[in-house]
Amino acid sequence: MKNKSNLVAVMAMALMLSLSALARQQDQTPTGGTPPTFPQGTSAPTPTQKTDPKSSTPPLTSQELKIQIVKKLQTQPGLNSREIHVKVSHDAVSLRGSVPTDNERMLAEAIAKSFSSNRRIDNRLVVK
User: Fold this and answer.
1) Residue 40: predicted pLDDT
2) Between 117 and 57, whose confidence is greater?
3) Burial zone of 84 (CB within 10 Å; 0-12 exposed, 13-18 middle, 19+ buried)
4) Separation between Cα atoms, residue 34 and residue 24, nearest integer Å
5) Counting Cβ atoms within 10 Å, is residue 65 exposed (0-12), middle (13-18) or buried (19+)?
6) Are residues 48 and 90 in contact, defined by beta-carbon separation less than 8 angstroms?
7) In the prediction, which pLDDT does 117 show?
8) How confident is the model at residue 34 (pLDDT cuts 50, 70, 90)?
């Protein structure tokens, strides 16, 4: 009986040691696995950029951009755009005319900014 209990104790101890070693080994393993190695004098190849279909389209012309801004101004709820005139050049979007409230002035500017990419916004809208 004593031999059986000694055997059980030894087996339990061996199991605990192996589990402990396994836990230490898992802590030391890098999360991404083994890092790649390259021949001496070389480095990792540079990643190729994936082409994004959205970014591969040419930028909008000034006229196309103007059309998009005017459409959005006309369809924006809560914005009276009848007196807003839009002019687009290669580096700026100009808003001229009048709107009834300061909120509408800020909304028109935000719409222009959302389409303008890197063009500056010249907001000359007057609140009447």
Assistant:
1) 72
2) 117
3) buried
4) 17
5) buried
6) no
7) 83
8) low
Question: Nearest-CA neighbor of 60 among 71, 47, 69, 48?
Answer: 69
What confidence tens digit (pLDDT) does each residue in 78-102 have?
A: 998 899 999 999 899 999 999 999 9
Q: How many Cβ atoms sit within 10 Å of the Cβ of residue 69?
A: 23
Asked if pLDDT for residue 31 goes beyond 70, the answer is no
HSE, side-chain direction, 13 A CA sphere, residue 37: 3
> Which residue, chain included where needed, has tokens 């839009």?
86
- Sequential DSSP letters for 10-71: HHHHHHHHHHHHHHHHHHHS-TT-SPP---TT--PPPPPPPPPTTTTSPPPPHHHHHHHHHH
Strands 120-127 and 92-99: parallel
